[in-house]
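*** Query protein ***
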Amino acid sequence: MNSRKILIVTSYDSTFVLADIRILKQHFSKDESGEGKVRVIDFTGIRNSLRDVLRTIVKLFCGILWADLTYIWFGDFRAFVSVFFSRILMKSTCVMIGGYEVAKVPQYNYGGLLGSSIFLKYTLQKCDKILCPSDFTKVEINKFYPNKKTMTIPLGIKNEDSIHLNKKDKSKKENLIVTVANAVGILNQTYKLKGLMTFARAAKICTDLRFVIIGKYGEKVRKELQNISSSLEFTGHISSEEVKKYLCKAKVYCQISYRESFGLAIAEAMYCKATPVVTMRGAIPELVGETGYYVPFDDPGATAAAIKKAINFPKGQQTRERIVNKFLLEKREKLLTQEIESLL
């Protein structure tokens, strides 16, 4: 067993981040002496007091000094600081780019490249390895910083028989249309980029179907969307287990976004045999392939028609098979550990 030490730097508790932490701890957990080999630094405090920021930076420096490799989720300011210290201390770094960092969509006030790109450029230039969740994101990275050290490692779905819907379980499916997206902030236009306005307008057309938005929401955005369709339902933030329950019941999953860097919720829905109605934008086609119904972005009529078609001609078995064949967490685990081992 390799005895080298890994520091994981993040400030997010997303499902995919926690999955990587579990993978690295499982494969690089202890050395011969029984000492822990994987540590996690929750790099928060950027918007807190100066004292908190300095305390976190000192803790980060000490962690990098201890480690042989630093693995950073997202190419934000935390990645810049981590790579900067690692260069000084001559330690290896691997940065996982989420996609937002290399996006620039001014019409929706979305993307890391809308602001200064100095920190990101330094991070990409000086780190030892760049990982990304899709070929789409890889292309976006190379547009900003052409390089040969970027590798695509898709996110993965845990294979859980508990949410497998076999032939006997078809009765569990309902005329339920689900999308997962945060609907927060009128000034923050991300909810429009995620297609929630189109989702609401499609709900107004398909009055015989139940439309549910899963995710955090602000009251102003909720009112704006419900002014379009009063039947829209909002769950607010719910646990991953509750999300799975909705996905297992849904006949259709919508991700009608302007762009997606991967679309983990799509993969989870496909695994639960929900037929995807999606846009052919960003990384979505890489994930969905031929198992879904494609619609233009911001086209409520086409979206409503595709939803009705998906209800009548579901592709649930095909969607689940595609995820099992291409996007299980075991595949990500193998590729990720191989890349980490190559840097140690």
Notes: The first helix runs from residue 15 to 27.
